[in-house]
Amino acid sequence: MKIGIVCYPTYGGSGVIATELGMGLARHGHEVHFITYRRPARLAAFQENVFYHEVTGEDYPLFEYPPYDTALASKMVEVVKYENLDILHVHYAIPHAAVAYMAKKILLREGRYVPVITTLHGTDITLVGTNPAFKPVVEFSISKSDGVTAVSDFLKEETLRKFHIDKDIRVIYNFVDFDRFRKINKDHFKKAIAPNGERIIAHTSNFRKVKRVEDVIKVFQKVYEKIPSKLLLIGDGPERRRIEDMCRQIGLCDEVRFLGKQDAVEELLAISDLFIIPSESESFGLAALEAMACEVPVISTDAGGLPEVNIHGQTGFLSKVGDVESMAQQAISILGDEKVLQQFRHNALEQAERFDIRHILPQYEAYYEEVIEKAVVMED
Ligand code: GMT
Asked: Phi, psi at residue 94, to the nearest 5°?
């Protein structure tokens, strides 16, 4: 198949899934065309069957807000037409589903029909999508997609609850590539970070409010009182400065390492003993899955789709949002006993294997075929 993938090229979960999916499809022999405003973060090296089309706009003094949607729609039309794509797969509804609808209509005028699949990732539904500034367009464009997927059962239900959508939504979970995310020996690295054998706790996110990074610090503070440990904070975003201030105020600077955006997250996970993800809302929790693939148990909230990934009492623990006391006790119960930690590590890996890219990617391929076969030429 010839597949167009539209996504955000950033380190965010939707961009990561879109890029890994595209690269996986290319390895399966499909021709994959990424259409984005920047080369996706995880699309580092040259790969056969992978093409990248950069969306470039035009700066004009009249534009206070450069019309990205228009530039993207035009690029979609161009790539579908000249690369002869069979399907367009857009990730994150805003604005991609609406822009794809526009591109589809333009192509239709020229007698060319291209089916569109929209994958809903999370905040496009739970947070941003329901904002009245976007909702009518989000609702309309999801309904007009030929196929819609959601990354968890929770997100599917949430979409149907919040929007009026008379379309079947297929759940296709997030996935992980075990060729990359697995426990590898990085002892020299571990020694550098925890020279006295301290436990290593990790958190990865885009440091947005919804991630509640302050709870990571609060939990760590309580764990640190009982168990010698270090905290690795991976990623960057609007909350980082506030969190750095918080660490300074409570005097934990020597124990907390702010690592910023990292390309080789798997190397950091490989030396970690525990992962914390105290999000207020999380449609799936790809970061938790990647940690589990590296045999790292997870302390999370029970928000959104997290219970579909992290199994309470087996792969880690789930707590109510903001319940840092319980998260800290659970963390201590795992980190304080080597045998318990090993059991949780084993369970985490076993659960992560359910989401192996080798099981999930064929689900997308089958869905593409189904949608292409069923696509009805849109008249309205
Ligand atoms: O908002 C974010 O954290 C980024 C967002 C994205 O779309 O880039 O992540 C969402 O998509 C991931 C991949 O499908 C999911 O694993 C994350 O749970 C989800 N984030 C939230 O729902 C907050």
From this structure: -100, 125
Q: Is the dihedral of CA 223, 340, 202, 282 positive or negative?
A: negative
C-beta of residue 170 within 8 angstroms of C-beta of residue 149: yes
Residue 232 within any structural domain of the chain: yes
Which residue range forms the structural domain that includes residue 110?
A: 2-175+357-379
Nearest CA to ligand 1 atom 13: 13
Rounded CA separation 57/69 (Å): 9
Q: Are residues 145 and 292 in the same domain?
A: no
CB 205 within 8 A of CB 215: no
| Same domain assignment for residues 271 and 255 | yes
Q: How far is the CA of 277 from the centre of ligand 1 (A)?
A: 12
Question: How many CA atoms, within 13 angstroms, populate the side-chain half-sphere of residue 145?
Answer: 34
Run of H or E including 203: strand 199-204
Looking at residue 354, the DSSP 8-state letter turns out to be G
- Ligand 1 midpoint to CA 312 (Å): 21
CA of 15 to the centre of ligand 1 (A): 9
Cβ-proximal residues to 315 (8 Å cutoff; 6+ apart), any chain: 292, 297, 298, 344, 347, 348, 351
Token pair listed for 199: 């436990």
Cα 12 to averaged position of ligand 1 atoms, centre (Å)? 7
Q: List pLDDT tens digits, range 70-121.
A: 999 999 999 999 999 999 999 999 999 999 999 999 999 999 999 999 999 9
Instruction: For residues 195 and 330, state if they share a domain.
Output: yes
Q: pLDDT by residue (tens digit) across 124-136?
A: 999 999 999 999 9
Q: Measuring from atom 19 of ligand 1, which residue has the nearest CA?
A: 122
Residue 12 Cβ < 6 Å to ligand 1: yes
Q: Do 239 and 229 share a domain, yes or no?
A: yes
Q: Atom 23 in ligand 1: which residue has the minimum CA distance?
A: 282
Q: Is the CB of 210 under 6 A from ligand 1?
A: yes
Q: Is 42 in the pocket of ligand 1 (CB under 6 A)?
A: no
pTM of the model: 0.94
CATH number, position 165:
3.40.50.2000
